[in-house]
Amino acid sequence: MGRAEIEAALVLLRHLGVSPSDLAAGDAGAGTAVPTFAEFVPQVAATVSAGTLKAYGSYWNRVVDAWGSRAIDEPTPLEIQQFGERIRSSRTVRRNGRDGRGAVENYIAALRCLYRRAVANGLIREADNPAIKVAKPRRLPSTRRALPDARLAEISTVAATTGDDPELDSLLLRIHLETACRRGGALKLRPMDLDEQQCLIRLREKGGTERWQPVSPTLMAHLQEHVLRRGAPHDGQLLRYRNGRPITYRRYDGLWVRIGRHLPWVATQGISAHWLRHTVLTWVERNFGYAVARAFAGHTDARGEAGSTTTYVRADVQEVAGALAALTNEAHPAASI
Fold this sequence. Notes:
mainly alpha
């Protein structure tokens, strides 16, 4: 084929809106039926982690309800954006809500999760992924802040003097106030994760991360006592009700609702366990610096971190134990190593 013929062919392709790369890639998924949302969503749901399913499952269900019979390559970016606005307008309005930004952000993330798997399995081309073409709402700065000691004392007093299981609620608060862990980390704690001799607990948190976190001798003793009294199996969930049944996120929800009834400022500001994490890490950063606070929090080198400099400012478990010793005013065996 001569140069003139090639130029003519390129002109024709441009006229048809087709690029040479489109021809080279071929029609992705040719010969393969593109599934409907009703068919594809259950397949994806069966492959993701429990945490991902908890975060995205409700949005996938709404998409199936609305678009179940449609092929996954049918919705346009505009339709996806419009559906997000429907989710925003029908959301449950909460005191700490931010105009539905979180709901729309999670919905778009849920669809991107679906379409990433569709691309990976050759059902659609990357260039035809409609979810990636819809921008997430800009995330606003967090309104959380460190709580002063007097406010923490009020919260602890209410937890320890009200409710049907003050012993459990006080233990929950102490875990978070010493380790700054997330709720998921506390709920995944098992008796086999307790290193009594070194006063360390193994925390397993989001993203499949694991770390050994120092705790005070007093907290370790309470955890061991809780295991014995409530019959937690060695490889099962540690935190349990008096009848031996494992607790869930509902215990946290009920705890903060109850504290909010006694302390109106807690309800008004939407205080939760994550505020305790914020409080502890702020104190550690102010007193021991960024590196120790970062290690205390269990942060990794994932995207969004400060950059390659963090390679040289990592703190170890001994430094975290030193910060904990100062926080709790109790000596820690790892801090003196």
